[in-house]
Amino acid sequence: MSEIVTIQDVKTIVTQPAGSRLVIVKIITSEPGLYGLGCATFTQRFHAVRTAIEKHLKPFVMGRDVDRIEEIWQMSMINGYWRNGPVLNNAISGVDQALWDIKGKRAGMPVYQLLGGKCREAADTYAHANGRDKYEVVDSVRHFMAQDYRHIRVQMGGYGGQSESIQKPDGAPDGAYYHPREYCRRMCDMIEHVRAEIGPEIELLHDIHERLRPIDAIQFAKDVEPFKLFFLEDALAPEDNAYFHHMRAQCATPLAMGELFNHPHEWMPLIQERLIDFIRMHVSQMGGITPARNVAAYANMYNVRTAWHGPGDTSPVGHAANLHLDLWAPNFGIQEWCRFNDLVYDMFPGLPEVRQGYMYPNDNPGLGIDIDEDLAAKYPPEDEIIQWTQTRAPDGSPMRP
Ligand code: MG
């Protein structure tokens, strides 16, 4: 029997090459040269995640057998007694993904092989089109069509739109203002226009980003039904999960949900009661590959597909983890893709490549991705009070971002 390989060090690397603060865990093992990487990126609260890893998780996992991924995940989750929160889940994910990376390297196999092997050669992705008005959105969509993307998310003025006519009360504080009902009118008009301009073949997606009151979101899902979206994302906030019953009963717009989810009780009823069509957690936010694999398998029994969260605040390591899940999952639906710049590709050798809208693995053992730590150190994270999440209704009251 071969000698047990153990965890000898847990490093937390925080870097900001392109806007988002990325948190990467690097596990060093007792086998010379063998290490693994994991994503623990909660960009808005990266200090808290780093502290959770360095002060709580690292002492807990030091010296443990790297092969015991499941046991380490289960014990890491219950050891703090209070559990299923975003900081701890991300910290656990960093360790979990790094251990999957290590297991793949030890086996000489990509992680998708450990999950059960490929169901497909590449993961179909969607890109983000945006514009200040509906004409610019069409131009942006055509730009991605020219690159052979088959799925394109359409937004106008970013999340919440750019309101044309907000009348604030005197003394209203600064903030990211938007008008929920104006948003409904303008976005529905934009989606209708884009569909009319580009025809029926291209799959269109839209992200409400939980910015509407439930009854307005239900009306919106009905209003866009004729335009045959591939999915409508985060139509409701997790706090309003129960309203999915009403939305589902009233229209056949496909629904995608879940980037904010922390706790199994948030996604289990939606899958079990067949209230959504795509489950799309931020894989580090739910605790890593181990729970994502379980949720994918669970969702598969209900014919709910995966669409893991994949914008710029999922690290390149997290994108690699998404891809391995995508290649394996029988119920893979679509992969969100943010198109990193050259600096990020230099910093993370092995970052998956996308050609004609398909994301391909490199087939190296493990997650197939590395980090240039010297380069990462040249882009330290900057502290800031985040503005875009200080969202407000026209009268100045706080709204969910
Ligand atoms: Mg989203």
Tell me what you see in this structure.
This protein is an alpha/beta fold. The protein has a domain at about 115-365: TIM Barrel (Alpha-Beta Barrel). It contains 13 helices and 15 strands. It has helices spanning about 45-60, 70-80, 85-105, 110-115, 135-145, 180-200, 215-225, 245-250, 265-270, 290-300, 315-330, 340-345, 375, and strands at about 5-20, 20-30, 35-40, 125-130, 150-155, 175, 205, 230-235, 255, 280, 305, 335, 355, 360, 390. Strands 4, 5, 7, 8, 9, 10, 11, 12, 13 and 14 form a 10-stranded mixed sheet that branches. Strands 1-2-3 form a 3-stranded antiparallel sheet. Helix 9 (about 265-270) links the parallel strand 9 (about 255) and strand 10 (about 280). The protein starts with 6 loop residues before the first strand and ends in a 9-residue tail after the last strand. The model has no long low-confidence stretch (mean pLDDT about 95). The structure holds magnesium ion (MG). Magnesium ion (MG) binds near residues 233 and 259.
The whole-number mean of residue pLDDT values reads 97
Order of helices and strands: EEEHHHHEHEEHEHEHEHEHEHEHEEHE
Count of separate DSSP helical elements: 13
Which descriptor suits the 3D outline?
globular
Task: State the end-to-end distance.
Answer: 53 Å
CATH-defined topology of one domain: TIM Barrel
Helix share, percent: 25-40%
* CATH architecture designation of one domain: Alpha-Beta Barrel
Largest sheet report: 10 strands, mixed
What is the alpha-carbon Rg in Å? Answer: 21 Å
The CATH homologous superfamily name of one domain equals Enolase-like C-terminal domain
The share of residues in extended strands comes to 15-25%
- The number of strands is 15
**Bound ligand species:** magnesium ion
**Poorly predicted runs of 5 or more residues:** none
Summing up helix and strand content along with how strands pair, one would put the structural category as: alpha/beta
